[in-house]
Amino acid sequence: MEDIQTADPKVDKLIFGMAFIVILAFATPLVLWPAEGKALLGTALSWVTKTIGWMFLWFAIGALAVLLYFAFGKYANVRFGGAEATPEFSTLSWIAMLFCAGIGSSVMYWGTIEWAYYYAGPPFGVEPKSKDALEWAGAYGLFHWGVAAWSIYCLPALPLGYALWNRTTPSMRLSTACSGVIGHASEGFAGKLIDVMFMFGLIGGISTTIGLGTPMLSAGLSELLGIERTFMLDAAVICVWGGLFGFSVYTGLDKGIRILSDINVWLVGVLLGCAFLFGPKMFQLDMLTNSIGLFFEHYLSMSFNSDPVTKAENILAAQAAGETYVAASGTFSEWWTMFYWAWWIAYAPFMGLFVARISRGRTFQQLIAAELVAGTIGCWLFFAVLGNTSMFFQLDGTMDVNAMIANGQAPEAIIQTIKLLGDRIWPLGWLLVLVFVVLAFIFGATTMDSSAYTLAAVASQEDGVRHEPARWHRFLWAIVLACVALSLLYVGGKDTLSALQSASVVVAVPLVPILVMSVISLFKWLREDFA
Ligand code: NM2
Questions:
Q1: pTM metric for this prediction
Q2: Which one of 3.30.499.10, 1.20.1740.10, 3.30.200.20, 3.40.50.720 gives the CATH number of domain 52-529?
Q3: Which of 17, 46, 123, 322 could be stapled to 332 by a disulfide with Cβ–Cβ 3.0 to 4.6 Å?
């Protein structure tokens, strides 16, 4: 092994080994005992949201507060790479890369039908399927994909970027970003543990993405090719997806991701452009406007909504009936906001690393503005155009999205929305479905590709700044991602959502204290460097 890859950085055996063991320990029982595995995941999800769910809410608010301080406080003009550093990428492609890395096919999934879940099960005791429920549904989509969410994404980028570009020994490790707090322990076992937690988080987060994206792609293909959606089709989709990122792995990070990101941006333009021009424009604009109003007016109550009374009632009722409490049947907050924040947290250190790597020459303020403003607007466009169209189709009776979801056909509901939208242009629904499917494929591939790259970089001895991790090593992580996602789909059976939600929620827990540590480290460094 040694000679084959003299040019490539060596694998860090301890991190690599620990990560593999953790993943195997997680995935094997799921595949061997799917029914028990699913129950166990459900219990874990319930335990986390029931016991420490509030922590996720505080984390999101805290992240925003810290970022506002950095954006407008005395460190606003600190530049990655030092005062003289110049940016490596043009502002536009920097923002495009940042968006494409952090946002995957999930925005197409949830952007289209998230409202329907809130319409049927609204927050704040609103009557299900009422007018108010629909308006809240519009606002909550924006909330879960808005400023708070992007704050979670942005937070780790600051300490990671500072550790990479402004400290004497550049490093791409989350453990190094925590060294201001844990000192030399960051080079020992504690540090490795942090890096493994990072990997575990990312794999959990990605599994949720692949697990949701795959049935959506299968539904698209089954519409286009007239074949039935089965587990085999799902498995085939995952393999093709793997092949696509295999391609981008082999063409190298820059070329692969850049080509795909470019195609991506064009296709998003075509899809959203058509959906706006030929969709129910007036409703889209009205609903967006109204949702933005609700979003701002209720920002704090949404952020701190922990459903304490309903939750306590549910727990008491479960106790009285002698049953264990299951969050999946629980409150809006547990089922949605806590899940979402956890999912963003699972991705956050990865996003931080990637963004750190492309942000030399940018100031704290620029980075925060790019993520919070551009990221939010980018996500909102999907909700404004696709989600509001789907909502309109429900209202005017074109299709019954809620009935389809209740019937376990959420992926079909998404594809139908796109097809019916396309049919408004001409009988060209299938063409728009094709664009949608290709876009989802590429969107997923760019996200997975950069994550496989990051996983391999973290499990290599050298950081990924000067040396790219070995290709086989990157490819291996791509396969691991595909396998974990496949096992979750298998476990979930017809109802995969809760299994997929559990994966993200569980992996996010250890990341919260780690991210807090990295921010404290950053404060320490800044105080040292700018004393
Ligand atoms: N987040 C943004 O599939 C994706 O869109 C990846 C998902 C964390 C909800 C990210």
A1: 0.92
A2: 1.20.1740.10
A3: 123
